[in-house]
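Cont'd.
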Amino acid sequence: MTKKTIKVDYLARVEGEGGLYIKMKDDAVVDVKLKIFEPPRFFEGFLRGRDFKEASDITARICGICPVAYQMSAVHAMENALGVKVDAPLRELRRLLYCGEWIESHTLHIYLLHAPDFLGYPDAIQMAKDHKEIVERGLKLKKAGNQIVSFLGGREIHPVNVRVGGFYKVFSKRDFEPLIEALKWARDAALNTVRWTAKLPFPKFEQDYEFVALHHPEEYPFNEGRIVSNRGLDIDCSEYEEHFQETHVEHSNALHSHLKERGAYFVGPMARYNLNFDQLSPMAREAALEAGLQKECRNPFKSIIIRSVETLYACDEALRVLESYEKPERPYVPVEPREATGFACTEAPRGILYHHYRLDNQGKILDAKIVPPTSQNQKTIEDDLRKFVPQYIHLSQEELTWQCEQAIRNYDPCISCATHFLKLDIERT
Amino acid sequence: MDGKSKPKVAVWKFASCDGCQLSLLDCEDQLLAVSREIEIAHFPEASRAVVKGPYDLSLVEGSITTPHDAERIHKIRRSSKFLVSIGACATAGGIQALRNFKDVNEFVSIVYATPDYIDTLQKSTPIADHIKVDFELRGCPIDKMQLIEVISAFINGRKPNTPTHSTCIECKRRGTVCVMVAQGTMCMGPVTHAGCGALCPTYNRGCYGCFGPQETTNTDSLSSQLKKLGADNDEIVRVFRGFNAYAEPFRRESELHDKKNH
């Protein structure tokens, strides 16, 4: 009987703090736990009694990397509750804001968090010593995303311009001109990013997942669509809780989410891509196929290429919005409170983000429920490791550990969202 | 400057959203230049390489909310020459300090099915409540250029140049028309610490106090003004109970109005 213990004290380059524990017996995995001990902050608790207009700014503070996603899910859930539909130009501006966040968040992960794994560096700063131009391109591309968010939203992190019904302030077409120039450069850089990531070395690791994402017949999903899966799920956001369930496990301060009927599922860029390939822009579709991706991809390590394709799409889509932009007649649609319940799901960079609120007749929040993408992926991450480790058991302890970290980073986990501290323990007995 | 003599900088996280440390990675134009001047010795969000302490400068994000973290912060202080807390969580307890006004166990059972698994303190508290802090950088989130200023100040042995006046002054400097006077919009600008450049009024909304209280505040006078604009006690409580709810002047003011409610 072989006996071995692998131990890494800190899983780095993820947002937040968590740990991993893998127990092995005779080269077989007997237990995998993605441990999350990010201190809980109880957002759903203190949202009670707050005004419906405050939810978007409060929930943005769940995550500094994807605050726009929280703002979008919150305002859409409130609008769903209060029977409001925003004007078409405002809807377009919301797509633009989301494009900014996808570009910023995806590029952060591609260049600064994930690529160093493929090329064998501890971080992007070390990587820059040998690949200066690449890292500089990544930073400039990330900046283009942040320029959208900080111009339209007021600042990159926790933007201030989003409100229920629309925006506080809208801009003239001319105001956006500097962004168009930056985005044209960014679209080329994103195309080069797709080509560059396609050449990275990928472990052979294909799994049979249930992918879950929003789907909209006419557009790649941001704020609107039905929740669909490759195994026949096709529901409205209001039906989410009938099909998905959260459970509280001892090793995680983030609730585990699963499909009531079938268990673990997969959300995020790879799920969106597989369920919405036809809705990508022609440029993004071509780039994906040219990079050697099929219409369907089941290797989570290749998520770095898909994130690049989505970044290209987001640049392309942002330019489309800006080129056809006319200043909206009013910055927001007036909203009156009433006793109501509202639901929304939007596509955060890491996958579907569900919000559900119940309001009283003054618009005070009586109940709130929030399910972030990372808590939905937790079980799938654990399943991946269960299957991945035996395939690579021949590797040295250090190499295997690094590979496991990379397998976790495939999901760009945001532990701050899901609850923080990743500690990796692989115990072999 | 050779590699060995670079100052060692560490970044630490407690209960937070990651946004303030992300501000460092959001310095896209400065990141590589900054990394030539300092050694990023401990920054798990950005690197899997960890250099052992002691550190010349520690940047601490997040508030203290667990018994484990209340101990961890003392170890970090012992291994740091200078320690700067960054952001509203680290300087005031953050939005999660809303628990301080209620019984935390009630919150635990709203969110978690098996409250016994959760190990949490009754209150969410700022770093300075636990250890000596050399400088506090405000904001929810912090301003990234102020962060660069703070790093550069400590490395060069000088005091950071970050203004301590109110957001109101920033508005006047920008020439933004007062939203409270001109539109009757409730605004926390008169009592809020500068740093954001008076962003919200520029976007046609009232300031909501991300940077916390300025040095000497007249919260009482602001409450009277908010009342004139139609706010009831309940609304005044909510205005002061935002991202810096547990900062002393805001806490006092909200408790005063909370009492009037009951």
